[in-house]
C-alpha cells in the first residue's frame, strides 16, 4: 500500500473515532474533497413508535352520577316545599287549648317527689328561659336530682345531620322563609304569642 494511501486511511480512522464512530462500520460515510478527508453525518433512522400508556384501572366519575345526585336533591327540596304547603293554617282555626302541664313539674302533695323526678334548678323559666334539656335525666341516670343545672322538663330536640344541613343551606331563600313562618305561626298560635305572630306576618310579606 502506498504511503499516501496508508496515511489517508489513518487520518480517516482518527476522524471517525473522534466522532464516536467505528471506522469499520458500513454506516460511516467518508468523503474526500480538496485534499481534506471528512465524514458525512448519518441520516437518522425512523424513531420507534411509542406505545400507549396502559390503563391504570381508574375511571373518572361519569357526568350521569352528578346529574342523578342533583336530581335527587331537587326532588327532596320539592318534597319539603309540598310538606310546608300541607302545614298551612286552616281558614277557621280550632279553639285554642291550654297546654297540659307535665305531672313531674307539679308540687308534691303529701309526699316528696323522688330526687330524679324533681324539677331541677335548670328547669326554672321553662320553656323559654330554662337551661336546655338534661340528657342524663331522660335516660334515668341523672344523679344531681333537683340540683342539676339542666332542665328536666324539656325534651331533647332532634338535630339535623350533616346532609340535612347542606340541603337546608342550598334551599331557596323564599322556600326556607315560608317553612320557617309556618312553624313559627303554629307555635305562636298554640302559646298565644301575639308578638311572634307579628314577626310571622313580616316573614310572609317577604316571601
From TrEMBL:
Residues 133-155 form the C3H1-type domain. Keywords: Metal-binding, Zinc, Zinc-finger. It comes from the Eukaryota. One of its GO terms (molecular function) is zinc ion binding. The keyword Membrane does not apply. The keyword Zinc applies. InterPro entries: Znf_CCCH. A zinc finger (C3H1-type) spans 133-155. This is C3H1-type domain-containing protein. It comes from Effrenium voratum. The lineage of its organism: Eukaryota, Sar, Alveolata, Dinophyceae, Suessiales.
Amino acid at each position: 500500500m502506498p504511503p499516501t494511501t496508508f496515511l489517508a486511511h489513518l487520518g480517516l480512522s482518527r476522524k471517525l473515532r473522534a466522532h464516536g464512530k467505528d471506522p469499520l462500520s458500513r454506516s460511516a460515510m467518508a468523503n474526500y474533497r480538496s485534499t481534506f478527508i471528512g465524514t458525512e453525518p448519518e441520516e437518522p433512522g425512523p424513531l420507534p413508535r411509542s406505545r400507549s400508556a396502559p390503563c391504570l384501572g381508574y375511571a373518572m366519575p361519569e357526568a350521569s352520577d352528578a346529574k342523578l345526585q342533583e336530581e335527587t336533591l331537587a326532588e327532596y327540596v320539592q318534597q319539603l316545599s309540598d310538606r310546608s304547603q300541607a302545614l298551612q293554617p286552616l281558614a277557621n282555626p280550632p279553639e285554642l287549648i291550654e297546654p297540659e302541664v307535665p305531672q313531674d313539674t307539679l308540687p308534691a302533695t303529701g309526699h316528696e317527689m323522688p330526687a330524679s323526678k324533681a324539677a331541677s334548678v335548670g328547669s326554672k323559666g321553662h320553656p323559654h328561659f330554662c337551661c336546655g334539656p338534661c340528657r342524663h335525666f331522660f335516660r334515668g341516670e341523672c344523679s344531681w336530682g333537683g340540683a342539676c343545672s339542666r332542665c328536666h322538663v324539656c325534651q331533647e330536640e332532634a338535630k339535623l345531620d350533616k346532609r340535612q344541613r347542606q340541603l337546608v343551606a342550598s334551599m331557596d331563600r323564599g322556600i326556607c322563609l315560608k317553612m320557617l313562618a309556618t312553624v313559627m305561626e303554629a307555635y305562636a298560635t298554640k302559646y298565644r304569642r301575639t308578638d311572634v305572630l307579628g314577626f310571622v306576618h313580616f316573614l310572609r310579606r317577604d316571601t
